[in-house]
Specification:
Blueprint lengths: L1 H26 L4 E6 L4 E4 L2 E4 L1 E7 L2 E6 L5 E5 L7 H27 L1 H24 L10 H13 L5 H18 L7 H14 L4 H30 L1
Parallel strand pairs: 1-5
Antiparallel strand pairs: 1-6, 2-3, 4-5
Helix pairs in contact: 1-2, 1-4, 1-5, 2-3, 2-5, 2-6, 3-5, 4-5
Length: 238
Amino acid sequence: MTGTLILLMLIAMTFGHELAHALTAKLLGYKIKYICLGIPLKFVIFGKSVSTVIFDKKWRGVSYQISWLFMGGAVDFYDMENIPFWKNALICLAGPISNALMAFLAIMIVAGPTLAVSVFSMLTDTILKGLGFIAEGTVPLTQIGGPVMFMTASTSFVNSFPGNLGYLIVWSLFNVGLFVTNLIPFPALDGGQVMTSLVVAIVGEKAKKPVKVITYCSLYILCGLMLIVMAKDLLLLM
């Protein structure tokens, strides 16, 4: 039961993140192409096109998708080729900001606005320190697990607290984690999208093609790392 609720929480915060991107783009006049839970990738293997998307339902002109590569999400729009930098920045930042709001509001309901600021700052500092340990090599990449290890650790953590307190902490911590990590200036993440669109705005049209190549290469590298940790999980289950 605990694992199911944690999974539903992850789906809710991921969908909320992508929906914030989509609604912001719509408010700015752009039509939504698709919203996907998970990373939608297409490969060509032995001449045959293969997709990670396992569910695709179109409703009111928007394609709602689910990918088995469920470690994040994606959203795409029509007519985004010549979008001004400030509009693209707003769309990109809307996702992580929505996660920050979801975390802050949950804490505020329980602790009040003043204490919520302190708790939110503490959680942000914890995430930043954790990322710093990984970057420094203090925490080896071999200790980073995939979905199975993640769910096992999260379930144990939630069950160690009385009542619904564990769920509140996990909800807040996960949302803050999405907020912080998505602001990292890595091309496949929201912060990186802001950075690359700024490069295009400064350099001009000639930067579009190399920026696109760098972004896609970064995305495939990130997905490759996801597949490695998922494979590690599968080996542990055998």
